[in-house]
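Recap from last week: sequence in, structure out.
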Amino acid sequence: MKFTFRLLFWQFSAALLALGVGLPAVHGANPLPKELAKYEALIKPEHRKHWAFQPVKRPAVPSVKNHEWACNPIDAFVLARLEAQGWQPAPPADPRSLLRRLYLSRPAEGLQLGVNYQ
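Predicted structure tokens:
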């Protein structure tokens, strides 16, 4: 009998629903406020200095010399790092090179022993 991930997922979901297990939002309940208060009391003020407790801040997008290359803010961060080291981004690849990269990046078939891909 061949099982797929989707079939196993739905069977597992059905079993959870049969047991009455669900998400708190579905049942309209708060996620155990007494339990959360216990955990909150365990966190000391010096632990609050850890980066995980700091509020998330959006960093300023760095200014770069080559504005045409940076298409989005992530490109600006990458380009700023390249320019800091005195490097330039590589030119765009031609279609033949892109196709070759795509072909070489696909996973090799049959490398995992005992796995039948058919």
